[in-house]
C-alpha cells in the first residue's frame, strides 16, 4: 500500500522520538538535557554500561557511538519490535492518533478477497486437526508418536491430517457454504479434467499449516503416509495468498524469538523446525520444499543480520549450502551475512537432538562457520595444488566468486580472507617438506620446500666452470643481507612478501628464517623479532647470519632505524638475484642445446646474459681491482669473465646442421 504525500512528515511531527525510545531505555540524567531534546542512554541494540546512545529529539534521529546504529522513529520501531515498514508506520500512527490511509477501491477489493481466502484456509486447518483425532488417522498418529511429537507440540504447531478420500475437505467446506471459487482459489482443491466434481489437493497426508508473519494461514505442507506416493512432501499451489519463494515456515514465531535475542536458524523441513523449536531454538524457520530464494534471504535478513543455515551433513546438504552461497554473494552488505552449521553425515536436526541432546546442537550452532570458509572448502576440498597451473586455476575460481560481491568493502575483506586461507594452505605444505636438523636434499625443492622446485639443470651444466664459479656463495650473501635487513626492519616484510616467498635460500637455515619471518608478519606479530626468533629457530641461526662480514658491514643492518636505506638495499639485492637467475637459466638452456656444437646465436645469448649480469653488479661496493672495463664502459668481473671464456673456448663454432 502506498502512503499519500506528506503522511510520513506529519507522523514524524506528531510523535516524540524520545518518548518512543524512552519505552525501551533508561535515560542517563547526568548527560541528558530534556529541555534541548538532547538525550543519552545505554544502547538498546548492544550490551553496554556507558551511555553512548544519543537521541536528538528536535531533529528526530538517534545514533549509537558504540555500534553505529542510527535512524528515526520508524526504524527504531522496526528494529526493536521486529516488524516491517508498514507495520511500524501503523504502530506509530495509532500512537499519534492518525488514521491510516484508506486503500483505493480496487486494492480494497483485492484485500477483501485475500481476507476471505485466509478465512477458508483457517477453516481447513480446523478440519485437518479434527481428522487427526478420528478413526482412519491411526497410522498418522503412530508416525507422530515415533517422531517424538507430544500432543501439546502437535497442538502448538496445529498439525492435522487429510483423510484418504477425493472430496473430504471439499464436501466439508461446501457444506459450510464456502463458495467453490474460494476453495479453488485457496489451493485446497483442483478442478477435474473429466468434468467431475473438483477433488482435494491433499489426501492421506499429515498436514502442517503455513502462516504468514501476521499469523494468517496462507497454505499447507503435507507429508505423505503412503511410502509409494510420488511426492513425500507436497505444498499448496501458489495462490493470491501464497508465494512459495517469498514465504518461510514458522516465520512469525521465529521473528518474535529472534527479537528477544535467540539466534535465527534455517533448517530444511517442517519436522526439523518443530524439533529445533521444541529443543529451545525457537527462532527456527525453513524454506518450503525448494532451495532458498533471493526473496527468502531478504526475509531472513529482516529478522536477523546473520542467520545460521543448519543443513544435513550429506552430499545433498552440502550442495544446498553451496547454492545458498552462490545466491548470497551478490546480496551481501555490511551487517548482512550467513553462517553454516553442518551436521554429522546421516543426521538431521531431529535425529541429532534425540540422539545427543540439545547441547550438541547448541555446540554446532556456536561453531557455525562463515560463508568464506565454506566457499574455500568447496574450491579446495579433495584437490591437490602441486603445480603452478592448479594454483592458478584455484586463484581464478576464487576471484570469479569474489567478483560477484557488489559491496566493495566486503569484497576487499573476502579477498583478504581468501589470501589468508591460501597462505595457510601453501605455507603448511612447504613446512611439511623441511624439517630442522635434517640435511637438505637436492630433490626436495628450493630452500627445502616441497612442490616449489627451481629450474632443473642439464647434468653438464651443473659441473660447468661458469656455474661453479662462486655463484652459490654470492647468492647466499645476497640472501643473507636481505634476511638480516628484514630482521632489523620487519615492517618491510609485508611490502616484499611476494619476493620473499620466492626467495630460493640455498642455506636451509635461511629458508627456516624466511618462513618464520613471513608467518609472523602475516599474522601481524613482528614486535621484537630479534629477541624472540632464537627460541623459535634454535641456537646459532641468527648469530651466524649477523656475524657474516658482508652482513655486518651492510648499512641497512648497521643503521637499523633507517627504513629508506633498508628498502633500497632489499630492492637492489632482489634485482641482482633476479639478474643472476636469468644468467643461470640462459646457461642451462644453452648447455642443453650445445651438444658440442653451437652456432653464433647461442654464443651471442651467452654473451648477452653475462653482460646483463655485469650491469646488475655495477653498484657493488667491492674492490675495483677485481674488475676490467669493457668496450662499452661496463665493469666486468674478472672471475666471471674468465669462467665464461673457458666455456666459450670449448665450443666449436661450426654451423649447426639444419
Explain the overall architecture:
It is a single chain. With 658 residues, the chain is an alpha+beta fold. Helices cover 50% and strands 9% of the residues. It has 4 domains: 7-96, DNA Primase, Chain A, CATH 3.90.580.10; 105-242, DNA primase, catalytic core, N-terminal domain (DNA primase DNAg catalytic core, N-terminal domain), CATH 3.90.980.10; 295-433, 3-Layer(aba) Sandwich (Dna Topoisomerase Vi A Subunit, Chain: A, domain 2), CATH 3.40.1360; 434-658, no CATH class. The protein has 29 helices and 17 strands. A hairpin with a 5-residue loop joins strand 3 (61-64) and strand 4 (70-71). The radius of gyration is 37 Å and the shape is elongated. Residues 433-470, 621-636 and 650-658 have low confidence and may be disordered.
Task: Sum this structure up briefly.
Keywords: DNA replication, DNA-binding, DNA-directed RNA polymerase, Magnesium, Metal-binding, Nucleotidyltransferase, Primosome, Transcription, Transferase, Zinc, Zinc-finger. This protein is of the alpha+beta class and 658 residues long.
Brief descriptors of the model:
4 domains, DNA primase DNAg catalytic core, N-terminal domain, Dna Topoisomerase Vi A Subunit, Chain: A, domain 2, DNA Primase, Chain A, 17 strands, 50% helix, disordered C terminus
**How far do the termini sit from each other?**
85 Å
Strand tally: 17
Mean pLDDT: 80
Number of domains: 4
The proportion of residues forming helix, as a percent range, comes to 40-55%
Q: Whole-number radius of gyration?
A: 37 Å
Structural class: alpha+beta
Number of helices: 29
Query: Could you give a short account of the major beta sheet?
Result: 5 strands, mixed
Strand content: 5-15%
Order the strands across the largest sheet as they lie in space. 12-11-13-14-15
Q: Segments where pLDDT lies below 50 for 5+ residues?
A: 433-470, 621-636, 650-658
* Spatial shape: elongated
GO cellular component, one term: cytoplasm
Catalytic activity: ssDNA + n NTP = ssDNA/pppN(pN)n-1 hybrid + (n-1) diphosphate
GO biological process, one term: DNA replication, synthesis of primer
Pfam family, one: DNAG_N
